[in-house]
Write a structure and sequence with these properties.
This is Haem-binding uptake Tiki superfamily ChaN domain-containing protein. With 337 residues, this protein is α/β, with parallel strands linked by helices. The chain is 43% helix and 14% strand. It has an eight-stranded mixed beta sheet with strand order 2-1-8-7-3-6-4-5, with helices on both faces. Helix 2 packs across helix 3, helix 4 packs antiparallel against helix 5 and helix 10 crosses helix 11. The termini are far apart.
Amino acid sequence: MIKPSFATLITLALLVSSGCALTQPHSNSSRFTPATLYESVVIDPRSRQSIPLEKAVNTLSKADVVVIGEYHGHQASHLLQARVLKHLHAINPHIALTLEQFNLDHQDDLDDYLAGRTGETEMIEDADAWDNYRGSYRPIIEYARAHNLPVIAANAPALTVRCVGRIGPDYLNALPDKQRQKLPAHPFRDTPAYREKFIEAISGSHGASDPAIADRMANVYKAQLLRDNTMASRILQARNSYPGHQVLHLTGTFHSEEKLGTVALLQKRAPELSVAVLSPVFWPSDQPAPSLEEHRRKGDFLYLIQPLPPEFRDRERRNSAMKERFKRRSNATCEQD
């Protein structure tokens, strides 16, 4: 399992932080190998066998909510998402999309684009779309626009998330009523298993045992919970606003795998809903494959993808780049007027 660095985890928590051409197992190996970075192999973890995407979608179509975890910016994740959307829509024309990749305070900007009142660049600027929008999420949004599917911006406002991570949960008390009312009633609800997973993810990070860093990480975890609770709340709002619609939710895999994070909080709020999760697993094509056993609990279905190339080999350059990215995103003030 690849664990994020301490700096990466803080950045992700504060800032936010495939196509299935199937390749069969090698003749004398249990390894499944996506042939390119665009491809993925869908696995049924119960049988531990690869299956056609269409077969997985037939099962997913029976759920009230389908959640696809992703590694942000991975071509195979985004191609798989587009194909799952297409196949689900062919089975049920009533689909609503909820996306982590847009923040709820930019719902009007997203709606303006879907309604044809603004152009793509205007939407990207107005809605503060992610830097990889054109390469990763454009196909999803364009499919929704072409078929008049509702799209819900599901994430918490970016500044609010950052300021909770920086100041702590009390930051919400200073928000204007109009802003606070858009957030969930219980913004920091969590589950023990998710808390343990979060702690495990940072336990190997440099300085994680330092008391000062531990205090900071407690706020970072609250910021993470704010995002998860907001996404769970927005999924429920989508179900209420569009009765009879199946919801397809796209999110980073940490928020959904093992049905923790957003999924667990959604099920706490609405235990009557059936929720199916499709989770990615890195599967190097040039190395012996790890056992599927350690990944079986990640989702109702898994999809295997090639790892992305490392951004940096030089640790100093990596740390410098992370600091610069964090600095660029952290210059907004958390003071209330």
